[in-house]
Write a structure and sequence with these properties.
Blueprint lengths: L1 E10 H11 L2 H6 L2 H13 L1 H21 L13 E5 L5 E5 L1 H10 L1 E10 L2 E10 L1
Helix pairs in contact: 1-4, 3-4
């Protein structure tokens, strides 16, 4: 049974502007440790790919926070929710600390998809009962 659906559309240009103003502090605030490694690798190879990665993760976390009904309040935080790719390339949500415990208590499962095109990143999350 579906318990929540969330979506978010992010303007990649705004993410770039924020990075330009706040340097990498913005990425460090939004991304968890595993995501940060991927971001830094992509940014070093092709800067635009790094920015797109950050934008899709930002959108996915916003969508996830809507799907679980918390928004960005405890136990939901930017860094406790990571969107990482499975070996197949499929994005997956990995939760940490209090957020992982809270989510497990509800016995929910989350599905996420992300995409980006030119100036926008889009994420869609469905949360269902196990």
């Amino acid at each position: 049974m579906i318990v929540g659906i969330g979506t978010d559309l992010c303007d990649i240009r705004r993410i770039q502007q924020t990075l330009d103003r706040k340097t990498l502090r913005f990425a460090e605030k939004v991304l968890g440790p595993n995501e940060l490694l991927v971001f830094q690798q992509r940014l070093a190879k092709v800067p635009a790919r790094g920015v797109r990665y950050l934008a899709t993760r930002f959108a996915a976390k916003e969508a996830f926070s809507k799907a679980i009904g918390l928004g960005m309040r405890m136990p939901m935080t930017w860094r406790r929710c990571e969107i990482l790719n499975a070996p197949s390339g499929r994005p997956e949500i990995r939760l940490h600390d209090e957020l992982a415990d809270w989510f497990a208590q509800h016995q929910w499962k989350a599905h996420v998809t992300v995409t980006d095109e030119v100036d926008h990143a889009l994420a869609f999350v469905v949360v269902e009962t196990l």
